[in-house]
Amino acid sequence: MAPTDCFMPAAPKIIESVCMTTGGKLLNATIPMPDSALLINSQFGGDKVHFTVSQTWTEDYAGLAIEGGMGTCIIKGNVTFGDSEDVQGECYDGFASVTVVVYMDEEFEPDECEACNVNDLSEMGGEYEFCAYRVELPCEPMIVDCGEPSAAPSGSYFPSSAPSDAPTDSSAPSASPTASPSAGPTGSPSSSPSAAPTEGPTSGPTTSPTASPSDVIEMVCAPPDPILISNDGETMYPAPPVVITSVNTTHVTFNVENTFGNTASSVFTEYHSGSFGETECLEEENVEQNAQIETEFVAQCMVHTKISIVNIWVTDCSAATPFLDQTDNAEIPECCHAGEQCRTVQYTFKLPCVSPCDDEASTLAPSSAPVPAPVSAPVNGGQFGRPDEYSTNSGGARRNLAEDKEGSTEKFESITTGQTESNNAEDDHFCVNEDYPCGPNNNKVHVCHYSALDGYKTFCVPESDSDVLRFYPKDYCGPCVGGYGSSS
Predict the structure, then answer these.
(1) Helix (H, G, I), strand (E, B), or coil: what is residue 130?
(2) How far is CA 268 from its chain centroid?
(3) Which phi and psi angles does 335 have, rounded to 5°?
(4) How do the pLDDT tens digits run along the chain, 488 residues long?
(5) What phi and psi, each to the nearest 5 degrees, are found at residue 384?
(6) How far is the C-alpha of 291 from the C-alpha of 261, rounded, in Å?
(7) pTM for this model (two decimals)
(8) Residues 105/143, Cβ–Cβ less than 8 Å
(9) Within a 13 Å sphere around the CA of 404, how many CA atoms are in the beta-carbon half?
């Protein structure tokens, strides 16, 4: 008999990493996360995973900021080498998304709402250095080989009784076999016919086609539905306030509506907006009944489980016609910058990032204007082997590709047009031609770029030029799943 399965904690999976300054300059090299820096302690396949982050980056003092769930950023300053922090991560579909930021300057004390946000940190100014890591933690252990079984079987605590002297008789012995096999097949069919006889074939082929062709129905694949996974408060919405408009495995776009029959004082939307799992919380005030918030949100998806988590808070401060229960007192995170505390309900949704259609049909395209892109981290031209194109001078000063907050199409085209293909087959580019091929010879790659003026626009560029997408949080690989147009 095979040995019983044994288990051990599954290893964390590093998705993204970067080292830079608070002035937006990339460091010459990204420091890999040390092997012992993040260790998983327990995995029970539930809604939590327990892990420990140890300061093993530098022998000097350093700061740590750890985000184990949306809106929770643990900050530790003056951490000595070897000191650690135990953290719980929130599991969704078997994985927890965690962000770890290490500050190499002991005197640097970021604000709680910025400490775990790479985009905000890169825009603060100054020369403080930090490294950030986006990690996904498996919430279930691995099954491992228990090793060789013992050489001899173990003795049972209660031995079996002595064997019988003769074989036992079966309760219903079979009939005696025939003396010899039959000489040939039986001459008649089975004694009982089938339940319904088959319809006989036509005497010959039909001379003309059927009177009308078969109905052909062209199916349009609708986006998946959001899944409510928790709520805080007594009042349930009449209809889900989140509507998914499109998905492409890496991002999911969605709208938020007030589905209540009264005007909501405020609606807060918290979602993952950046490639490092940064959370952004936006407030819309005085949202009328059945009204949709103008912003169309673009959320980052988890890599291993293809979902994104969204929190919605609805507040009701009306004294005349309240629609929320007096006991609805959900707490809005500090980083959402809520004002007056009123009756509040919270709904947490899981948004699938994969089309529900087996044939991967395109989902319905979004129609509203996308959310404005935050200022992104700058790019180091030398990092991509083209310092003349991407740096302001040969001395190494970096040009901030996102200095224009609108991320204009003209600027993006000037960056990605006219560059030569890299001949190094080992280059690890942001977008891969095999995934989204385009061009006359299918030797380029489709990318989707957002600008406030033109919305989302699809470009066909060399693989090497796709590297600039790392620094535009709203851009992604592949053709745009919705928006306003394509490059000519």
Answers:
(1) strand
(2) 21
(3) -75, -5
(4) 555 568 777 889 999 999 999 888 999 889 999 988 999 988 766 788 899 999 999 999 999 999 988 878 888 888 999 999 999 988 988 899 999 999 988 777 777 788 888 888 888 888 889 999 999 999 888 887 776 655 555 544 444 445 555 555 554 555 555 555 555 555 555 555 555 555 555 555 555 555 454 454 555 688 999 999 999 999 999 999 999 999 998 999 999 999 999 999 999 999 998 888 788 999 999 999 999 999 999 999 999 989 999 999 999 999 888 999 999 999 999 889 888 889 999 999 999 999 888 444 334 443 333 333 333 333 333 333 333 333 333 333 333 333 343 455 565 666 565 444 444 444 578 898 888 888 878 889 888 887 656 677 888 989 888 887 776 777 888 888 754 445 54
(5) -105, 10
(6) 10
(7) 0.60
(8) no
(9) 12
Q: From CA 208, how far away is CA 328, in angstroms rounded?
A: 70
Of how many residues is the chain composed?
A: 488
Q: Return the DSSP state at 414.
A: H
Q: In whole angstroms, what separates CA 6 from the centre of its chain?
A: 29
> Could you tell me if 284 and 296 are in contact, meaning their C-beta atoms sit under 8 angstroms apart?
no
At 294, is the secondary structure helix, strand, or coil? coil
Which residue ranges form the domains of the chain, and what is each CATH number? 6-144 (no CATH), 227-352 (2.60.40), 381-486 (no CATH)
| Range 124-143 burial, b when 16+ CB lie within 10 A, else e | eeeebbbbbbbbbbbbbbee
Residue 416: both structure tokens together? 């990605």
| Residue 99 and residue 276 in contact, taking contact as beta carbons nearer than 8 Å | yes
| Amino acid sitting at position 115 | A
Sign of the alpha-carbon torsion through 474, 477, 483, 487: positive
The residue behind tokens 């560029």 is 461
**What does the block give as tokens for 477?**
């690989």
Q: In whole angstroms, what is the distance from residue 390 CA to residue 387 CA?
A: 5
- How far is 50 from 483, CA to CA, in rounded Å? 41
What's the CA gap between 31 and 102, in Å, rounded?
11
Angle formed at CA 174 by CA 168 and CA 175, multiple of 5 degrees = 135
**End-to-end Cα, the chain, rounded Å:** 66
Residue 141: enclosing H or E segment and its boundaries?
none
- Those residues whose C-beta lies under 8 Å from the C-beta of residue 347, and which sit 6 or more positions away, are 228, 230, 231, 237, 241, 311, 312, 314
